[in-house]
Each structure stands twice: as structure tokens, then as C-alpha cells.
Amino acid sequence: MNTPRMRLLISMLASVVVLVGCGSDENPGSSAGVTPVERPNILFIVWDTVRADHLSLYGHERRTTPFLDQWADGARVYENCISVGSTTFPAHASMFTGLLPTEHGTSNEINVLPNEFDTLAELLKAAGYNTYMFAANPFLASKEDYASLTQGFDTVEYPWSEQYYREAIKITFSKVMNYDRSNPLADRIRSGRQLIRWNVKACGELAHQGVETWLPRQDPERPFFVFINYMEAHAPLLPPIKYRKQMMSPEQVRASYNVDRRFMTVWYYVFGLQEYTPEEIALTGATYDAALLELDDLFQKLLESLQAGGYLDNTIVVLVSDHGDHMGEHHMLDHQFSVYEPLMQVPLVIHYPKRFAPGRDPRPVTNLDLFPTLLELAGVEPPVRSKAVNLLNAPEERTRLGECPHPMYGPLRRVLKVYPNFDPQPWKRSLRAYYDEPYKYIQGSDGRHELYNLAEDPGELRNLLFEQPQVAERIAAELQTYLNSLKSISRRQPAAFQQPNQEQLQLLELLGYVESSNDEQDQEPEDSDTPRKPASRPTP
After folding, report:
1. Cβ atoms 261, 235 nearer than 8 A
2. What does pTM read for this prediction?
3. Which of 36, 371, 442, 478 is the most core-located residue (most Cβ within 10 A)?
4. CATH code for the domain in which residue 201 is found
């Protein structure tokens, strides 16, 4: 039987042979086997929905990450990292399997990872690691009777777990001002519908409690793998007022609570049915930056606590994002229907001076590359060959692929209820972004393609498809060759995937991913997130 544990034993034997025959390699950028005794702990942190260019670490004008800026002086900062998936589930599935979305076959619509895949947590668990997950994104939630991204974790916790949800609601209440008219969560709290376990906005503080409770109970002779998903930067944006005050003037702080960012209003804007003013777009960006400052503060508190407990000794700390978010670029908000740079360029920072020399790294990398890299450092052989590269030996040049494998139909259906003449067809397409620097080629499944020179046009404002047809044809052919080299490893058909249960639907609806599962919500009060035309916004 070809199990993760059997492959681990073979890998460990091979590592011993290498160590005996060749000795160790002290070069921080080299690849070498490790013995079980040397295996490092792994702290893998995802800042969900965080784009690199809004971090001061990556040059943003506002100081959104003061602690990260300082801490990263001792870390490897990757300046050119893309996500291989522009939405949550395929990006996480890729980081956990080392495979591209095309290969594992998942998306936000097909959000189940089949059992046939060996995940990072499963492989590390088989290697003797204690494994723990705290996730605030419902796409990462365990699903009864079928596989999910939680496979391989000994302990999995959420803000809505029974032991946390009362405090989660309390924390959320503290973040929502009584005059907040900007988001659906504030609407729900005012309408009295808050007393259910769908709160997803209090991950930070509760994640720390979970980790700090779990770690002392583990065998200290075994390394640990801790994975945390933070959702503070994901809509609905709820940064506490103290962080807003550091990003905005007093007048802007007050105004930030009045920008209508309910999901239906966002989709009306994205689909060109309504408009935001430039001031409203700017306030949305400033509110997002305040959420990043909150994340930075949470990150500092977690690391300081773990450092005080001695848990960061011989620990790899990874900070990355699954994807970014639009702030009005290309007339878009949120992170659907797109593979533009605000979604694809993500932060990646690795702190482990034993093997990663501190400094800035301009090489082209992806968040997919974490899979073989962490397994290498743990002394585990990757179970599959893929397009991922080991960051210990990343090449100076490479082509890369990012994907939006499936459109989200929930927003389209909800908008059609209000605008029956709206044509959703242009949005019903999958997208691929192929990077052959300096060019980026966007392939649309409907035949609408784009070509950009990112060195000259980082904002992707000038489509060169017809200006440089020979370049477009060359890269399109390269992409097809690249795709032909991939294998669709998932053999399960989409129809075989089970649907989320009612509680999971409530969580996903709160985040704007699916349409309401309760038809009666169309008759809710005017302060709810219902599909209607706000009278204050002109339509074309």
C-alpha cells in the first residue's frame, strides 16, 4: 500500500544514506536531507485576502505593517510572489497539495478536496508531527462524510467552535459601531440575527488562545505543524476604530462607516450597474489598510507569546496570502471574476535563518512552492511531481500560472433577481494568468484574452493583444504546451461533490460567496443585505 507513512520511511532511509555519504551542507540556500532529530517546527500563517502592494513591507504609502517591517529584517522577503489561485479554496488546496488548480480540480464552486490527495498536514503527521489548524474561513471548515482541507490535522478549531463562539460574538460586537452602515454584519447585529455561530471575524484573538492552549499539551519530543488562517482583511471589513484612526483623518473615520459595502452593492458596482464615488473607493482602501494594521498587531502578539514560551526555537515561520483583493482597479471590488495583479501578487515571508538567508528576493515564486519547500525542511519526500519549485533552490527565471478555475454563480443569480435585464454571460468564464516575464497573458475560456507588459504597465491598463499579436501567439502556444504537461489528477466529477450543509451555507453567505439560502430574506428590513436597488445610487 502506497501510504504517506510508507513514503516517509523510504524518504527517511534515503536521507540517512545521503547524510552518511555526503555530510551536511551549511549553505542557507542549499537543499540537504535532515534527520528526524533535526526536523523543525512549522508555523504556517495565511493572511486571507491580503494583496502585497498594500503592505508597507512592499512599499505601500501607509504604514500598514510596522511590526512585520521590523521582523522581516531577519527573514527572507519574496518580492515577486504570485498566488496560483485567485480565490480561497483552490489557492489553499494548491498550497496543501503542491498541485495547480487544474490538477486537483477544485474551485470555490467545487470546494471539496478528494481523499486521493496527500496533503501537507497528512504527510507531516505521518512524519511524526503534531498538527493543528485554526481557520476563520468557512471554505476551510471540515465537511461531514467527505474530504476537506482539514485532513491530516489532529486538532481543528474555528471561531464558531463551541468553546469559542460566545467570545467570538463578543469580540465582533466590540468592532461594530452602532452607527456603522457599511456592511451586512452590522446590519445583522442590529436586526437581532446575530445569535448564531456564523461569526467569522474574530479569528485573531481566538487563534492565539487555541494555539497557546494546544501547544503545551503536545509531546515536546515531536515537532509541531501549526496552520492559522486569519480573516481580518476579508469582507465584511471590521477593523476596530483605533486602527482606522491611524489610517484616516477623524472625518474619514466617520465616513468610512457610511460607505455601503454590502455585498449586493459591491456586485452592482462590479457588474457596471451602479457606481461608487472616488472618495468611497478611497475610503474602502483606507478601511482595508486599517484591517492590515490589525493583522500586523495580531501577528506581533502571537509571535511574542510563542517566543516567550520557547516555541519559536527551531521553528520555520511562514507568512503568506491565498490571494489579494480589488480596490476599484478595473472597476472591480472583492476577489471574484479576475486574475489581475491586485489578486495575484501576494506577500511571502519566511523566517528560518538556518536555511534562508535574510534579505529581499526578486526571483519569481508562487505560494504553491511552499509545499515542496516545507517537506524538504521536514525531511519528507513530496508524493507528486508538480510545477512547484523548492524555494531553497528557486531559479532566477521561470514561467508561472495563476488560475480562476470557476466563476462564482451566487452573485450573478442574486443580481439577476434585481436586474432581470442584466447579461451575466460575460462573467461566466474561467481565467488563467500565464507569466512569461515581462509579459502576462490572460486566457479567458470564452475567447476574450489579454496581454500586458508588467514592467511597463504594472496596472494592466493597456491590452497589447492586438498591438503585439506575434508575442500573444507565442505566449498562447507556450501556455498550451504548459497545460499539456499537466495532468488532471482529480478523477472525481463535479456532480459527485456534496453540497455544504445549512450552517456552512450561512457562513459562506455572510462572506458574499453564495446567494441566500433563505428566500424570506428578500422581505427583510431595509438595513439587511438583500437584493434590492438602493434608491441613492443611480443606474445606467
Report:
1. yes
2. 0.86
3. 371
4. 3.40.720.10
